[in-house]
Amino acid sequence: MKGILTRLFFLIFFGLVQIMAFSQATDGCEFYSNTLKIHTLSLPIVSISGTSPLKLGKSTKLVAHMHTAGKKSFLWSTGDTASLIKVTPNATTTYTLTVTNLAGCTNTALFTVQVVPNQSVAKILNFKAYRKGLISKLDWISNTGELNDYFIVERSADSLHFSPMLKMDGRGIPEINLFFTENDNHPFEVNFYRLILVGLDGSKTYSQVEKVVFPPLSEISIFPNPTSDQFFVNLTPLEGKLVSMQLINVDSRLIENFEVVASRNLFEIQTFDLPSGMYFLKIETVGHRPKVLKVVVAR
Predict the structure, then answer these.
(1) For the CA atoms of 46, 49, 55, 59, what is the dihedral angle to 10 degrees?
(2) Against a cut of 0.70, is the pTM above it?
(3) Is residue 85 exposed (0-12), middle (13-18) or buried (19+ Cβ within 10 Å)?
(4) Strand 221-223 to strand 210-213: parallel, antiparallel, or no bridges (unpaired)?
(5) Alpha-carbon distance 26 to 18, whole Å?
């Protein structure tokens, strides 16, 4: 009995599939062959580029990048049909692009634009420095924001050369006004203050300069002068401050040293055991230039 033996061969080349069939009778007398060609169509390959994340209110361009040759048509989920579109999303949005080639094959690509809210930056709404007793009060208002880092209060004695006096955290609830108050417990006679708001990126916002003036040591007085047994020092303008006083003779020799917290009470210095003559009382305190008063002891 005669049989048939069949062999199939496949040839694939650039989208063309060719199938060749060869059949032969088992007795070798008959031979048959046939060829079938199949053309395959490739899908268009596409990707999308754009900016993400994106700040609220900002725009970005979405660009279609084709990775296969040939003419194609585009359809975005926005309804646009160009290969490049501009979008301004109000919230995080995923955009879809459908590409169709001449053979009618389609493919899609997705691109998500993440929208982030605009972060708030604080403003210095008000900064005031003023005298209260023998200290400087520093008050300010700021609508703190999440891009802020800290505040710096700077002080100067001449309005030209400032140095940091204190530092404090500047972050808070965005768009909520917060009130701050600090003290300068050791001011100069003349003080210039300014406030700096420093952002997380290192940026700085400066306030206006505030001036605070305190009574000079020229208001310090002694009496009676001349004296015999004692005299009194009026330290009222320095109330609350630590004051150092030195009684010195004409040869610059220290007779006696005093340290006292100034008050409205008169400070008494005994002179009954001192020889008659001229003496000097040197008065010093933080934030003031030293003052020297002449004292005459006479009997």
Answers:
(1) -80
(2) no
(3) buried
(4) unpaired
(5) 26
Q: Identify whether the C-beta of residue 150 lies closer than 8 Å to the C-beta of residue 198.
A: yes
CA Rg value for the chain? 46
pLDDT at site 14: 46
Q: Are 279 and 249 in contact (CB under 8 A)?
A: yes
For 54-110, give the DSSP string: EETT--EEEEEEE-S-S-EEEEETTS--SSEEEE--SS-EEEEEEEEETTS-EEEEE
Cα–Cα distance for residue pair 165/96, rounded to 1 Å: 57
Amino acid at 172: G
Q: Cβ distance 46 to 97 under 8 Å?
A: yes
Express each pLDDT in 134-188 by its tens digit. 689 999 988 766 667 889 999 998 899 999 999 988 765 556 778 899 999 878 7
Q: How far apart are CA 194 and CA 153, in angstroms?
A: 6
**265: three-class secondary structure by DSSP:** coil
Q: Which of 109, 120, 117, 136 is nearest to 46 (CA)?
A: 109
Q: How distant is the alpha carbon of residue 183 from its chain centre?
A: 25
User: Phi-psi region for residue 228, left (φ > 0), alpha (ψ -120 to 50) or beta?
Assistant: alpha
Q: Please say whether the beta carbons of 195 and 152 come within 8 A.
A: yes
Please, how many CA atoms are within 13 Å of residue 245, restricted to the half-sphere of its CB?
A: 25
How many other CB atoms are there within 10 angstroms of residue 282's CB atom?
Answer: 15
- Closest listed residue to residue 11, CA positions, set 44, 48, 39: 39
Distance CA 266, CA 171 (A): 47
Residues 160 and 225: their CA atoms lie apart, in Å, by 41
Of 254, 258, 220, 212, the C-alpha closest to 239 is 220
